[in-house]
Design a protein that fits this description.
The complex is a heterotrimer.
Chain A (H helix, E strand, L loop, with lengths): L1 H12 L1 H8 L10 H8 L2 H4 L5 H4 L8 H4 L12 H12 L2 H5 L7 H7 L1 H8 L8 H5 L19 H9 L2 H4 L8 H6 L2 H7 L9 H5 L12 H6 L3 H7 L4 H6 L7 H4 L11 H4 L10 H32 L5 H20 L5 H64 L1
Chain B lengths: L1 H12 L2 H13 L1 E2 L9 H22 L7 H10 L4 H28 L8 H23 L4 H14 L6 H9 L6 H33 L19 E2 H26 L21 H12 L2 H21 L11 H23 L3 E4 L2 E5 L5 E3 L9 H7 L1
Antiparallel strand pairs in B: 1-2, 3-4, 4-5
Helix pairs in contact in B: 3-5, 4-5, 5-6, 5-10, 6-7, 6-9, 6-12, 7-8, 11-12, 11-13
Chain C lengths: L1 H17 L3 H30 L11 E6 L8 E6 L2 E8 L2 E6 L10 E3 L4 E3 L6 E2 L5 E3 L8 E2 L1 E4 L2 E5 L1
Antiparallel strand pairs in C: 1-11, 2-3, 3-4, 4-9, 5-6, 6-7, 7-8, 10-11
Classes of the chains: A mainly alpha, B mainly alpha, C alpha+beta.
Chain lengths: ~400, ~400, ~160
């Protein structure tokens, strides 16, 4: 009895290990040698998940015909519909995935995605299924830079289909997103700075549940990262139009895939799309632009002023600290402008201006006191000159009195 | 009234006359006729020494000799307390001027032959004072704890490490550890503000006593000096004193003017992990630093060590009785050569490892101070030669 | 200087009796005396004002006194300037903590949100926890901590 319990513990405790070691010989690979090379190093191969899990069949049978006998459930190359199901067998199974700590909602999400809907509802097999993005025999962890769904590789992976004009034609989907994205502020951050936190395709469209965000969801998509902008935007006059479906939120001014770094000139370029240049609304926008650009300019000039003073050997620690605060305020104006409230932005701009004035005054005073030191040299030397003269007269007097005595 | 009372109080207790008479005698003891403006260099040194002590005491009020706080406390002195910047600048400029003035004072003594019998001891003390002034400069330079001072001190102490046998332990002893750090700062601080000031103070006192007691040297040959009769020379007080007053005022003006127009910048805080480019010692060590480059380490130190030894022994080596420069051609030649070599090596040291433009052409100076023309592509023409040299 | 001044003064009287140009000598003597006095005053007065305490805090560097323990209630935070850079001091239940107040994203000054119990950046919505670690938002790194200690009821922050 005791021995039995011990044995049980050992088997349970070293279960996976024992299994891996005791796996009977896999005869599939005697023919499919090259496939085995891919599978061996994949995330599945390392876990002992091999051929029969996806393809059916009996790998323990050395005989080819017996291994692929109908009774073994052999399916050969699975079709697209099957692939989704086969992956889902494990990956949608909470019990199976619990051990690895992987989420299990991918299949459910996929079914809600445009890809999934077309596959299941329209039986459209041109849509991507799991292996189109993740690969198949050589699947690696998504944290591996070689994975096609590693953040750096996502745009290229999506572009494999979405950049294909012929493939996209029946759906009427644009195919220039990759080019646009590559040159956008996000694309540059991703490809040039290798910034993994930046938005890729999946950040806005979702991955397994990929969908184009509807007019009302744009702010939610962008607001995942740009939350202050989103909150402020929802307070603006334009937010009301969204409910009527008239205003596509963020992209109305900023565009989407090819989004460029923003500057105040957006007030000149974007507003005219809807507002006449003579209109009150356009003028309001120009007033905001004025506030922002003057604050930014003021900050830049003051930064240059402080830097120059520092180069000239003036101690500018206090001014640098104050400048940090001013910079924060100027940066704060950027999300705040999305309220399109002149009053709110003007309030911040007033604070910025007064701080800038303080810094400038303080630097000016320091420069003046340096100048004063130099001016103070004049009275000093006049005094020294007088002293030298009287002492010299006294010396001559002493000399002449000495000669007189002689 | 008050004065008389105080005098009376003292007279009842001390034999004032016995003190006053020799004092008065020394004070009014006439100086020889040939006394010129060059003879005020000694009192200029004294003025600068006093100025260094006074400004030094003021700086000590706010200075903190730790690696963490030294730099910040100097910055504090330069920004917060009233005129703190001026005291620091006067102290820094005073140090540089003092080295120059003490050297010139020594040169004057050499030229007028005043170091000869019977004043050899005054000379030896004077040379000691000059070397102590240099050590003052070396130790004080580290105290602001900025990049320049940190690395100049690292290089400076490294040189000492090259002395055979005792060099390495001496280097570690000076630094208070393997590298220049907080321990070095403490050591240098103690030397700079406690040990040196008192040693110099007593040596100056002896030096001055000897000068007054033996009287100023005349231009007469050794053993034929005539005592100056009363009324013949220039009385030290008040006549010569007035002259020195003039010099002191001008020197004070120069100190303040330099402090304002050419202030010493504090620079960056010392960073033991980042060596800045082109580390060089202060100008007063430049020629010595340059000479060391031309010789293998040991011989270099021997050559450099010879100079102070020669200075000490000079009165015993130069035994001709004449004081007038024209009658001492060999001495003068040695003097001129020394000054010239100091200048040449100093200039070479300053130019070495820099790029300079003369008459539209840019020259790159290697570590030996040898120039190479740089062509338009910015490469040294003699680049290969240069490498072979090294 | 002092000694010289007195001596000149003493010297003045006997020479006056001998020399006939009394007025001129007197004038020169007065000027010299006045000048020496002025020089002395010019040296002593600035030195005295130099010695006058300039701030409550000494030189910055090492530890800086940023306020009393009572200045920040438990659960509160305060932004202070230490050696020219902004530092956020927090009073948590576990004691005082201090972080650089410069957001690691684009250098805005972060603030302590008492109600959320988080450090938030007002510019791009970066959020840090009470240990300065990034909770959400764009900051690439956490806030570098500063050493804090409480000495005699004063909060001391290391620069």
């Amino acid at each position: 009895m005791r021995i039995f319990i011990l044995l049980l513990t050992v088997i349970l405790g070293f279960g996976p290990l024992v299994l891996a070691q005791n796996t009977p010989k896999n005869y599939c690979i005697s023919c499919h040698q090259d496939t085995w090379q891919d599978l061996k190093n994949s995330i599945h191969g390392k876990q002992g998940i091999t051929c029969e899990k996806c393809h059916g069949g009996d790998p323990t049978q050395p005989d080819k015909a017996l291994a692929k006998a109908p009774s073994t459930g052999y399916i050969g190359v699975p079709d697209r519909m099957q692939i989704v199901q086969i992956c889902g067998n494990c990956h949608a199974n909470v019990e199976a995935m619990n051990f690895y700590g992987i989420r299990t909602d991918q299949l459910a999400k996929y079914k809600t995605s445009m890809h999934g809907k077309r596959l299941f509802e329209n039986k459209d097999t041109r849509v991507p299924v799991c292996d189109d993005c993740h690969g198949y025999h050589d699947i690696v962890d998504i944290k591996d830079p070689n994975s096609p769904v590693y953040p750096l590789n996502i745009p290229k992976t999506c572009n494999r289909c979405h950049g294909n004009k012929a493939l996209m034609k029946p759906y009427g989907i644009q195919t220039d997103m990759f080019q646009l994205y590559k040159n956008s502020v996000h694309g540059k951050a991703l490809f040039e700075k290798k910034d993994m936190g930046v938005a890729t395709c999946v950040s806005c469209h979702g991955s397994h549940g990929a969908l184009p965000p509807g007019v009302r969801q744009v702010a939610d998509a962008c607001g995942k990262c740009h939350m202050n902008e989103k909150d402020n935007f929802l307070k603006s006059v334009h937010a009301n139009l969204v409910d009527q479906g008239k205003f596509p939120q963020c992209i109305a001014c900023h565009s989407n895939h090819g989004i460029q770094p923003v500057s105040v000139h957006l007030y000149d370029q974007a507003c005219v799309k809807c507002h006449q240049p003579q209109s009150h609304a356009y003028q309001e926008g120009q007033k905001l632009k004025q506030l922002l650009s003057s604050a930014q300019q003021g900050l830049q000039q003051t930064q240059a002023l402080v830097q120059k003073a520092s180069i000239d050997g003036i101690f500018v620690e206090d001014e640098t600290a104050l400048l940090e605060e001013t910079k924060t305020k100027v940066f704060q104006m950027e999300p705040l402008q999305h309220t399109l409230s002149y009053g709110k932005v003007a309030e911040l701009s007033l604070q910025v201006n007064s701080q800038i004035k303080d810094i400038q005054n303080s630097i000016h005073q320091k420069r003046q006191s340096l100048q004063m030191r130099k001016i103070a040299l004049w009275p000093l030397w006049i005094f020294i000159f007088i002293m030298v003269t009287v002492l010299w007269i006294r010396y001559k007097q002493l000399e002449s009195s000495r000669k007189d005595k002689h | 009234m008050m004065k008389k009372k105080i005098r009376a109080w003292f007279e009842k207790r001390f034999d004032l006359k016995a003190i006053e008479q020799p004092l008065d005698y020394q004070l009014r003891k006439p100086l020889p006729k040939h006394i010129s403006w060059f003879h005020t260099l000694g009192s200029m040194s004294l003025f600068l020494f006093l100025s260094q002590i006074l400004t030094g005491i003021l700086l000590l009020i706010y200075y903190r000799p730790t690696a963490e706080e030294a730099f910040e406390s100097i910055k504090f002195i330069m920004t917060k307390p009233y005129m703190g910047w001026l005291y620091r600048q006067i102290h820094a400029w005073g140090a540089n001027l003092m080295i120059l003035v003490v050297f010139l004072h020594m040169l004057r003594t050499f030229v007028t032959g005043s170091f000869k019998k019977p004043r050899e001891l005054t000379w030896v003390i004077g040379v000691t004072l000059f070397i102590l002034t240099l050590i003052f400069g070396f130790t004080g330079y580290l105290l602001p704890w900025n990049q320049l001072s940190y690395w100049a001190t690292t290089v400076g102490t490294e040189i000492a490490g090259a002395i055979p046998f005792i060099g390495e332990p001496m280097k570690v002893f000076m630094r208070g550890g393997a590298a220049v750090g907080g321990e070095t700062l403490s050591r240098f601080f103690v030397i700079h503000v406690i040990i040196l000031p008192w040693v110099v103070f007593f040596l100056v006192a002896i030096h001055l006593f000897l000068v007054r007691f033996q009287g100023m040297s005349t231009m007469d040959p050794v053993d034929k000096e005539k005592e100056i009769k009363k009324g013949e020379g220039i009385p030290f007080f008040p006549d010569h004193m007035v002259k020195e007053g003039i010099v002191w005022f001008v020197l004070l003006g120069i100190l303040i003017t330099l402090s304002i127009l050419l202030p010493f910048e504090l620079g960056e805080k010392a960073n033991p992990l980042k060596t800045p480019e082109g580390i060089k010692p202060e100008w007063y060590f430049m020629s010595m630093y340059q000479v060391l480059k031309y010789f293998p380490k040991l011989i270099g130190i021997f050559v450099v060590g010879l100079a102070p030894l020669l200075l000490f022994l000079w009165p015993f080596l130069d035994r001709s009785p004449n004081r007038i420069p024209f009658k001492r051609p060999i001495s003068m030649a040695v003097g001129v050569l020394t000054i010239l070599s100091l200048l040449v090596f100093g200039i070479l040291g300053t130019l070495s490892e820099t790029k300079q433009t003369f008459f539209g052409k840019t020259y790159e100076f290697n570590i030996y101070g040898v120039p190479h023309v740089i062509n338009t592509r910015g490469n040294s023409v003699n680049h290969n030669n240069d490498k072979q040299h090294k | 200087m002092d000694k010289e001044n007195n001596s000149t003064h003493e010297e003045q009287n006997p020479s006056c009796k001998i020399n006939p140009e009394i007025t001129r000598r007197d004038f020169i003597g007065t000027v010299i005396r006045f000048g020496l006095l002025a020089t002395l005053a010019g040296m002593v007065l600035p030195a005295l004002s130099y010695l006058a305490p300039v701030t409550k805090r000494g030189p910055a560097g090492g530890l800086s006194d940023v306020g009393g323990v009572d200045d920040i209630p438990v659960g509160g935070g305060k932004k202070v300037i230490v050696a020219g850079s902004a530092v956020l001091v927090l009073h948590t239940a576990q004691g005082f903590k201090a972080f650089s107040a410069v957001c690691t994203h684009l250098g805005c000054l972060v603030a302590w949100d008492e109600s959320r119990h988080e450090i938030v950046c007002p510019c791009h919505g970066g959020v840090y926890d009470v240990d300065g670690k990034v909770v959400s938002g764009p900051p690439p790194r956490g806030l570098p901590p500063h050493e804090v200690s409480v000495v005699n009821g004063r909060i001391m922050v290391k620069a």
